[in-house]
Amino acid sequence: MNFKNKQLCRIRTVTTFVVMDKDKSTWQESIYQAAKFCSDLSQKFLLQDYEVQSIRIVTNPFGEFLNTTTIDDAKSDLETITQLLNDLDLPGLRIRFAIGEARNKHEISLLPELIKAYGDLCNACVNVGLDENSILDNELITEAAMAVKKISKITPRGEGNFNFPVNFNCDPLIPYFPASYHRREMGKCFVIGLETPDLLVQVLDDFNDSYPDGKHNNLFKGYFQVMNEALQYHVDRIKIIVDSSETEDFNFSGFDSSAAPSKDCSSMVEVYKRLGVDYFGASGTVEASSLLTKVFKSIQNVELVGFSGLMLALTEDTGLAEGTIQNEFDIRSLLTYSAVCGIGLDTVPIPGDTSIEKISALMRDTGTMAFRLNKPLTVRLFPVPGLKAGDITAFESDDLCNCAVLSVP
User: What is the pLDDT of residue 245?
Assistant: First the structure.
């Protein structure tokens, strides 16, 4: 059957989670051990015809190992880590690095300059929780919004915000950056993240070919079954490879079953169309989003971690990006769909002059939904300097699609 084609199911990332200490003499071994494990496991996947796109290393909160006394101290330590990563002599896979979470206002205030200087080797997040009265930590949200604004001003085209999200109700062990973070007490472990939009498109095409007139009494039940079967097939086979590769050094913690679209695979918009939705944002989008979320959470025989849900990363998905140009949905629609899927407002370009107050309000709305509905949601906004709502971005990052800037009501 077509869904058994391993080229349809890529391994987006092998992500290791490590514990770093203040003792810099231990950093080289920690980084090398994590990268070597990822590289060796990636080679085993490749021998079984599963493509691996990146390997990633995530640390405990950076305040536990970087000198955060001043920005210069923190930069000096990150320079050391950068050199250690550059010195790795491993087969040519892209290595990405996350320094974990910022836990307070001071640490958040360091991130704009660190991201400006070290970019993709300085992925970091902020986890915003609730107080004793179940009210969001608005002080931390405001500080994060200020960081978003500063990053937009000091990095080219504001692209540095690609490396900085605010997390709400997100547990550790997310394998995808930059929402990923780790906690010391969890020790050394690893997680597999997948990229499966091509697989979903294929199985839906095959199913729809069986019912060319669109008449099927249990259409959505059929969609669920074929997508579940295809994902389960590949997860089971990847798990066999993982089980044969476990070591005492890194414990396997599970899969993130999210589809994780990118510029290099089918758009999630193509999946929606095959589910009978005219375009993403049309009537039926909420129903289809709910179905897809159920599919991703239906995987058996493995631990599901991270988002394990529907990811709608606006500027990483060519179809979603085109949808903004065609004015097919707005920022409020994305927030509505977050009620039945699982990522929030991700990589969303907004006008460069959007106020800190409006950015904070968007974060609070997302956070309120995350905790009220018990879902992991994030906010990763791109205020684009000099652009207003409706203008088209001119991003240069290989990871980003260009799209229309969305207004913030």
Answer: 74
**Across the chain, which distance is largest between two alpha carbons, in Å?**
66
345 domain-assigned: no
Express each pLDDT in 347-383 by its tens digit: 999 999 999 999 999 999 999 999 999 999 999 999 9
At residue 121 the predicted structure's pLDDT band, cuts being 50, 70 and 90, is confident
Q: How many CB atoms lie within 10 A of CB 49?
A: 10
Rounded CA separation 18/190 (Å)? 9
The tally of domains found in the chain comes to 1
State how far the Cα of 55 lies from the Cα of 194, in Å rounded to an integer. 12
Residue 209's pLDDT band (boundaries 50, 70, 90)? confident
Q: What is the CATH number of the domain that holds 284?
A: 3.20.70.20
User: Is 127:167 a contact under the CB 8 Å cutoff?
Assistant: yes
Q: Is 384 part of any domain? A: no
Decide if 366 is inside a domain.
no
For the whole model, what pTM was predicted?
0.93
Quick check: bond before 165 cis, omega within 30? no
Answer yes or no: are the C-beta atoms of 201 and 8 closer than 8 Å: no
Domain containing residue 272: 1-314
